[in-house]
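Structure in, sequence out. Go:
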């Protein structure tokens, strides 16, 4: 069963506009560089010993038709001007023998920064609870992140990626996606 444990992962994002919702999604996949794969959504564990690689390097390893495991955030609208966002957050221990958490967040009205911070906060909060670290949920993420860096700088690392867009002015469907793409080989 070890064959299904990803050894590498990369992050990507994209958006698309089209009069049909499904084609808007397909264009977002193209924008992200993963349109040729059969995507399988999985939940949110970052495997031990998994290496994060650059998007360009990861895309080179994808083959047409390949079953590809992803953690995906996706949002869509056909309302002109409505802001849509999708974000992926990651928090993993610096000890590479331990697992981490990946979160997905999809929202309306969030800026790219707000969506990214929210997803990163979600992942960090899940990991912190596993590690027995108390992150006060009533404090803003920026404040909690600074506190965490000072108090626990040797324990874990967090990051995020987000895509936002405004609904197309002519009412076309607008889809945004953010993905953590897992590679098995």
């Amino acid at each position: 069963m070890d064959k299904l444990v990803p050894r590498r992962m990369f992050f990507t994002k994209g958006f698309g506009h089209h009069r049909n919702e499904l084609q808007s999604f397909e264009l977002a996949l193209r924008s992200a560089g993963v349109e040729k794969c059969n995507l399988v959504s999985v939940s949110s564990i970052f495997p031990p010993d998994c290496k994060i690689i650059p998007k360009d390097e990861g895309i080179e390893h994808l083959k047409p038709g390949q079953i590809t495991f992803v953690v995906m955030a996706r949002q869509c609208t056909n309302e002109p001007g409505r802001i849509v966002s999708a974000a992926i957050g990651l928090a993993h221990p610096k000890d590479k023998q331990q697992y981490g958490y990946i979160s997905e967040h999809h929202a309306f009205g969030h800026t790219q920064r707000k969506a990214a911070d929210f997803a990163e906060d979600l992942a960090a909060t899940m990991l912190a609870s596993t590690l027995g670290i108390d992150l006060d949920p009533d404090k803003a993420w920026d404040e909690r992140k600074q506190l965490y860096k000072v108090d626990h700088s040797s324990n874990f690392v967090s990051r995020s990626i987000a895509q936002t867009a405004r609904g197309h002015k002519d009412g076309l469907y607008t889809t945004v996606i953010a993905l953590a793409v897992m590679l098995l080989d």
